[in-house]
Specification:
Blueprint (H helix, E strand, L loop, with lengths): L1 H21 L5 H11 L5 H9 L2 H11 L13 H8 L1 H16 L10 H21 L5 H10 L3 H8 L1 H12 L4 H9 L3 H11 L4 H8 L12 H16 L15 H6 L4 H9 L2 H8 L7
Helix pairs in contact: 1-11, 2-3, 2-6, 3-5, 5-6, 6-8, 7-8, 7-14, 8-13, 8-14, 9-10, 9-12, 10-11, 12-13, 13-14
């Protein structure tokens, strides 16, 4: 009987999610930016002019480009230079990710502080890029996008499934594991919601998979590096207690990521994480998080 109730909740939530997807989300500017980026004849000047029409988007792109963890070697002061140094495809990924995050923002309350959530998402995204590069994996831009979007299901629940989200948080605060509380009240986890939306927005499968399995990469049939990096960066925010998100309290490390990422032991992992403390502190105090 209990399983039947959960399945009914899941079906109802999936239908509601389909309606969420049908809401007009992308701004006109962002739609035009995506079209330009899909056109092989587009030049930097045209793209820069279009992005410049959306001051909020321009500011966020420059903030990301100049963030300490993103790791660009030169100060980026114009959109033209950001496009040049980051590249068209990576700029497109960033634009789509920022669009998705902005589409589901809501007003802050005691259940979800939007500034805290944004800081956690941005820190996880920039940390993913840096960790990927430091470990020798050439997936920096994709890692950034995956990290930025890993908890996308949270604001979606907060905005469109408000009663269920409040019940989830209350249960979590009474020591019910987060994913269990989500399934109990909504029939879907925030990972599944994020994965659903990533697929609807036609993100690459490995990106949507990284959202789906970021709490437990060993559950991902692909056992891929990207999901492991997102999991590790998310865990690092809790371990260092910098830019952490309260619904990640008691976040457990999936030991499988050590082998996937070529880390030989937990001691090596602890040293690796501690080496990021200063960078995390600098990042969280940078202008990236003042917007």
């Amino acid at each position: 009987m209990e399983e039947q109730v959960k399945q009914e909740r899941r079906t109802k939530s999936e239908i509601a999610l389909s309606n969420v997807y049908n809401l007009p989300a992308m701004s006109a500017t962002m739609l035009e930016v995506s079209k330009l980026l899909d056109d092989p004849s587009t030049n930097t000047a045209a793209l820069s002019r279009m992005i410049g029409k959306d001051q909020g988007l321009s500011t966020k792109i420059l903030s990301i480009a100049n963030s300490p963890l993103y790791g660009l070697s030169r100060k980026v002061s114009t959109i033209d230079f950001a496009i040049l140094i980051i590249g068209y495809q990576d700029i497109k990924n960033i634009v789509v990710a920022l669009t998705m995050v902005d589409s589901f923002r809501n007003k802050s309350d005691k259940y979800l502080d939007q500034k805290e959530f944004w800081m956690h998402s941005m820190l996880t995204g920039t940390a993913c890029k840096r960790v990927a590069e430091d470990l020798g994996f050439r997936i920096g831009s994709e890692a950034f996008v995956a990290g930025l979007l890993h908890d996308l299901g949270m604001p979606v629940m907060h905005k469109f499934f408000r009663n269920e989200f409040e019940a989830i948080v209350d249960d979590f605060n009474n020591n019910t594991p987060l994913l269990e509380a989500e399934i109990n009240h909504l029939g879907l986890s925030h990972q599944e919601i994020g994965n659903f939306l990533a697929n609807k927005w036609q993100l690459p499968e490995h990106l949507s998979n990284s959202i789906m399995f970021h709490h437990k990469p060993s559950s991902n049939p692909e056992k891929d590096v990207l999901t492991s990096i997102v999991h590790l960066a998310d865990y690092m925010t809790q371990k260092l207690e910098i830019g952490n998100f309260y619904l990640d309290n008691n976040y457990e490390l999936d030991q499988s990521v050590l082998g996937t990422l070529g880390i030989s032991s937990e001691d090596e992992l602890d040293s690796f994480i501690e080496s990021y403390r200063e960078l995390f502190t600098t990042e969280i105090n940078s202008e990236t998080f003042l917007k």
